[in-house]
From TrEMBL:
Residues 45-121 form the Acyl-CoA thioesterase-like N-terminal HotDog domain. The keyword Nucleotide-binding does not apply. Transmembrane segments: none annotated. This is Acyl-CoA thioesterase 2. It comes from the Bacteria. Keywords: Hydrolase, Lipid metabolism. Pfam families: 4HBT_3, Acyl_CoA_thio. Homotetramer. Residues 178-291 form the Acyl-CoA thioesterase 2 C-terminal domain.
Length: 301
């Protein structure tokens, strides 16, 4: 039995969740914003990348339009529900001539589920260098889409990965959706971009990239031990997330996302990633530690 696309429009959903309301101007010692839940969300659990992106949009609403987010550091405190609305409280920590700092808490049910500090900078000039883009990477047009890989599998997770993500994600190596083929190495690479055009707002592009950065970042730790996402009994969750934006980017054009895992221990895996545009320009870097509980005897070291 083949899986067919649903009437869920993932790109429309992405743009909708990034349109926060200002709660009618409500304010305490924080600026308050509301992000609507999505009753049509294909999953019950809130995707971590979504709350990261929404928290950045909330913080950006409180800084001048000439300031762009250049870094953020966040901790996931509790799981959230995809269909429920979120409240964002933004505290203005500092506004200087070049930099502005914000602390954002995301709440559901009256309790915080994410705590984040982000920094925004007015564009400036200075010294420049970057780690070069890996060589020999095939073009994204030559690689299969998630729908091509998973569209024939009758499984709700396969349906979500194939048709309900707002990003086109194409693995350079074999994917690890249901099994791990090839060498068990602690690195991975994917091409990705949004399924449709994004508004011109650079902070919105950067927030959308934060959304996408949570998709495959833990895969190097799993691939290294021959563990797929479909492993029975596996329990994986993001613990923290840090990100740095180096240069202007377009998330609606192809970006190469390379990642590696330098360490895994004590049921945690550390993963580091870099984003390059098609011209080989390093536009962003990311780091995340994830909780990984694996059934005994599953890992193929």
């Amino acid at each position: 039995m083949n899986v067919t696309p649903t009437d869920f429009d993932p790109m429309e959903s992405l743009l909708r969740i990034l349109e926060l309301s200002d709660a009618g101007g409500a304010q305490t010692d924080e600026d308050i914003f509301i992000g609507l839940g999505d009753a049509k969300a294909p999953r019950a659990r809130l995707f971590g990348g979504q709350v990261l992106a929404q928290s950045l949009v909330a913080a950006a609403r409180t800084v001048g339009g000439d300031h762009l987010v250049h870094s953020m550091h966040g901790y996931f405190l509790r799981p959230g529900e995809a269909a429920s609305s979120l409240t964002f409280g933004v505290q203005r920590l500092r506004d200087g001539r070049s930099f502005s700092a914000r602390r954002t808490h995301a709440y559901q049910g009256g309790v915080p589920i994410l705590s984040m500090i982000s920094s925004f900078q007015k564009p400036d000039s200075g010294i420049e260098h970057q780690e070069p883009m890996p060589q020999g990477i095939p073009a994204p047009e030559t690689l299969p889409t998630s729908a091509q890989l998973l569209g024939g599998i009758d499984h709700p997770v396969a349906r979500a990965w194939a048709y309900e993500r707002p990003f086109d994600i194409r693995h350079v190596e074999n994917d690890i959706y249901f099994d791990v083929k090839g060498e068990h190495v602690a690195h991975t690479a994917v091409w990705l971009k949004t399924l449709g055009p994004m508004p011109e707002d650079q902070n919105l592009h950067r927030a959308a990239l934060a959304y996408a950065s949570d998709y495959t970042l833990l895969e190097p730790s799993l691939r290294r031990h021959g563990i797929s996402w479909a492993t029975p009994g596996i329990s994986v969750a993001s613990l923290d997330h840090a990100m740095w934006w180096h240069r202007p980017l377009a998330v609606d054009d192809w970006l190469l996302y390379v990642a590696e895992s330098p360490s895994a221990s004590e049921a945690r895996g550390l993963n580091l990633g870099r984003f390059y545009n098609r011209d080989g320009v390093l536009v962003a870097s990311v780091a995340q530690e994830g909780m990984m509980r694996i059934p005994d005897g599953t890992a193929a070291d």
